Amino acid sequence: MTIRERLEQWEKEYLSPYAAFSMDSKGRTRQEQQCDIRPVFQRDRDRIIHSKSFRRLKDKTQVFLTPEGDHYRTRLTHTLEVSQNARTIAKALRLNEDLVEAIALGHDLGHTPFGHAGERALDRVCPYGFEHNKQSVRTVEFLEKNGQGLNLTFEVKDGILNHQTSGMPCTLEGKIVRFSDKIAYIHHDMDDAIRGGILTEKDVPKEIGDVIGYTTGERLDHFIHDIVTTSYDKNDICMSEPVANAMKKLRQFMFERVYQNPVAKGEESKAESLMETLYDYYLHNIDVLPAEFKRMIDEGEHREVVVCDYVGAMTDRFAIAKYEEIYIPKSWHY
Length: 334
What we know:
It is a single chain. The protein has a domain of 227 residues: Orthogonal Bundle (Hypothetical protein af1432), CATH 1.10.3210. By secondary structure, the protein is mostly helical.
């Protein structure tokens, strides 16, 4: 018996009957020889961590564009916080931590530079639309490894696709990530807003604080404990009604005070214009795209989609550098 088979057997003996078991995975699009050490979901997690799209997350905006300070979140640190929250919940419920971690680490691989401002811009100008969850799946299926993709399992791709509120993953592990994503961004966006002087802890309405706490740490702890206690020994992942209502109110509070705050989001219109300008430039100058993207068009992909693939994959820094290279006059040397 291989190490992988022993680990698969351990899952069957220890994990909850509601868990997604590695040996029962629906598999990959392309058949592969199994690893003798790692079960399939652990292998997916490793592939995501070693991908180029994962490395690029370190230079992509979470909420605050180009903040002055080293302690504001990026898309990468957001991803790690989602993963940590999700693993804590999965371990307590005896669900599959490897699957949870793979989904969490991969859920934002297709996100644009400049956060949701970049996503809005591409969705507006591309006739085929642009949604970062779908782009994350396209990234792992098709764009990584020069068109080969990562060949991830069905369960991981399903969790990535359905991590937003409108989605419904087919596994409890995917549902954990769906909750953990919201918990993470509400928690760290408020923490960053307090650090930036946009909010104080005292600004949280009493009707919310009385239910889930008055500090970021108290709220994070309360959310995770509530999901664990409410979901324990159930074939579902859920919150208690009071905490779910408090989260909804807190999210609305964050939209009013942070996500639509001109101080925090004042640069977003510039970011959207930059993204639209880059999209238009590359759409009309296909010949300057990297070779792998031109090959995709030659093979029948819509040029609008391929331009979104290229521009949407950029980091904030690379997008700004490309804009300057194309449009900003340079000094003439003689």
